[in-house]
Specification:
Elements: H1 28-37, E1 42-43, H2 54-62, E2 67-68, H3 73-79, H4 82-91, H5 107-117, E3 121-125, E4 134-137, H6 143-152, E5 159-163, E6 169-170, E7 172-178, E8 184-191, E9 195-196, E10 199-200, H7 212-229, E11 237-238, H8 264-270, H9 274-277
Parallel strand pairs: 1-2
Antiparallel strand pairs: 3-4, 3-5, 6-11, 7-8, 9-10
Helix pairs in contact: 2-3
Length: about 300
């Protein structure tokens, strides 16, 4: 599909459909109409757009009887919300950082959390993504403005708050792939620590973390969560050079779950093209999605499960 003045991605397509406007990419009714009209068998929701919409997947599958390549709507209902993703981690015995357990727009609650747990804290839109609705607060005077902006960038106008892990940490992701038959495996890890405005700039696979035992723990946690909801998982891992006077203490910080991500770094390092695995076949559709888990080394546990 394409819109006026934005068709370069369709040059080698066998068939391309022109949409009325860029807004049509988010118009579920129109997309269902187009899918039925073209008698398609499966829909790839793209990167962003409706890839995290449980409503889009549910309606496409139940109303139009068309398969959506990506997580099922039941999975998206469970993982599309950061707090639900956090609960999933807790259910899987994955350590988490201190955080508010309910979405809020009440500045009083946020102030109380900061006073109890100390700064820095991270404010995140419950339904944000792509770096939207995320604000790091290092001290009290920054709080009100950061909270206001995060709420403005949240579609539901609600945020959650957690203790921030920002100094000396490394963002490590684990590529996990699964299918509709409950088969799940991983493609090891990659490092995405170099970021700008909460967006990854460079990815390296495998990661440069030398503590492979810790990486193994992260991978095992990813597989536990994946098996719980049958999906693909990403992670964030603390810098192994951070000061620590005791055994490694890992914590999880939930970010957004999204649809199929084909990371060139993981694919190249393993000679596997994940997106090809998700191509429709008569017998199965591979489903993938992603989450992020933050792990960190610290002198003392910030939170214990």
């Amino acid at each position: 599909m394409y819109t006026e003045n934005d068709a370069t991605h369709t040059y080698y397509a066998d068939h391309a459909i022109k949409l009325p406007s860029p807004a049509s990419y988010l118009d579920i009714d129109h997309l269902i109409h187009v899918a039925k009209e073209c008698e398609v068998q499966a829909v790839h929701p793209g990167y962003g757009f409706l890839s995290e919409s449980a409503d889009f997947t549910r309606r496409m599958e139940l109303e139009a009887c068309i398969s959506v390549i990506g997580p099922g709507y039941e999975i998206l209902l469970r993982t599309g919300d950061k707090l639900q993703a956090r609960l999933l981690a807790e259910e899987c015995s994955v350590p988490v950082l201190p955080a508010l357990t309910k979405p809020t727009s009440d500045s009083t609650l946020v102030h109380q959390f900061a006073s109890t747990n100390g700064y820095p804290i991270m404010i995140k839109a419950v339904d944000g993504g792509g770096g939207r609705g995320i604000r790091l607060v290092n001290e009290e005077p920054e709080l009100e403005g950061a909270l206001r902006r995060a709420i403005e960038e949240s579609p539901s106008k609600a945020v959650f708050v957690e203790k921030a892990a920002v100094s000396g940490y490394r963002h490590i992701e684990v590529q996990v792939i699964g299918d509709n038959h409950g088969n799940i495996t991983h493609l090891w890890e990659r490092e995405c620590s170099i970021q700008r405005r909460y967006q990854k700039v460079i990815e390296i696979a495998p990661s440069t973390v030398s503590d492979r035992d810790l990486v193994s723990q992260v991978i095992e946690s990813a597989l536990r969560m994946a098996n719980k909801v049958c999906l693909l998982i990403q992670y964030t891992l603390c810098n192994e050079t951070a000061n620590c006077s005791r055994s490694n203490t890992n914590h999880w910080a939930p970010l957004n779950f999204s649809s199929i991500l084909n990371h060139g770094s993981s694919s190249s390092s393993k000679s596997i093209l994940a997106s090809r695995w998700s191509t429709p076949s008569p017998s199965r559709y591979v489903r993938q999605t992603s989450s992020r888990l933050s792990y960190l080394y610290s002198k003392e546990p910030l939170y214990a499960i």
